[in-house]
Design goal:
- InterPro entries: Split_barrel_FMN-bd, Stress-Dev_Protein, YdaG_split_barrel_FMN-bd.
- This is Putative general stress protein 26.
- It comes from Fulvivirga imtechensis AK7.
- Pfam families: Pyrid_ox_like (PF16242).
- The protein has a single domain, classed as Roll (Pnp Oxidase, Chain A).
- With 140 residues, the protein is an alpha+beta fold.
- It is 17% helix and 46% strand.
- The protein contains 3 helices and 8 strands; from the N terminus they run αββββαββαββ.
């Protein structure tokens, strides 16, 4: 795993499940999309389903993910590099009929891809100090 902060990050992500993914378009405008977290793997990669056309409209491969749970005062900001992967076997592994709500075209549709976000920086709100605390910081 990435470092000691990764386990805390894994637990918080598992409890929240949905992130807001922020991408920048060709005019530099920021757009955010709700994303259901499929997995945080041991290599520090977060996995999501996304429409390939949505990701390709972004003009950056560097993204931000925000997780928030006001009830527990848990707030995360994660940034990293993202790629869209076309891997039919992995898509089927992660697929659940629940995802048909967001992707009615199904798991085999050509516009559905797996977004892999390699975590480079992760911060969490620390209510004791009223400031963000760094959990992961990998230099580019």
């Amino acid at each position: 795993m990435i470092n000691d902060g990764a386990e805390e990050l894994r637990d918080d992500i598992a409890a929240i499940e949905v992130a807001m993914l922020t991408l920048s378009d060709e005019q530099g405008h920021l757009n955010s999309y709700p994303m259901y977290t499929l997995q945080l793997d041991r290599d520090g990669v977060l996995w999501f389903f996304i429409r390939q056309s949505t990701f390709q409209s972004s003009k950056t491969e560097y993204v931000n993910l925000s997780y928030a749970d006001p009830g527990s005062h848990t707030y995360l900001s994660i940034s990293g590099s993202a790629i869209c992967r076309e891997d039919p076997e992995l898509k089927r592994k992660f697929w659940s009929p629940l995802y048909e709500t967001w992707f009615p075209m199904g798991v085999d549709h050509t516009d559905l891809c797996l977004l892999a976000v390699k975590i480079e920086k992760a911060d969490i709100w620390d209510p004791e100090t009223a400031a963000m605390k760094n959990l992961i910081n990998i230099k580019r």
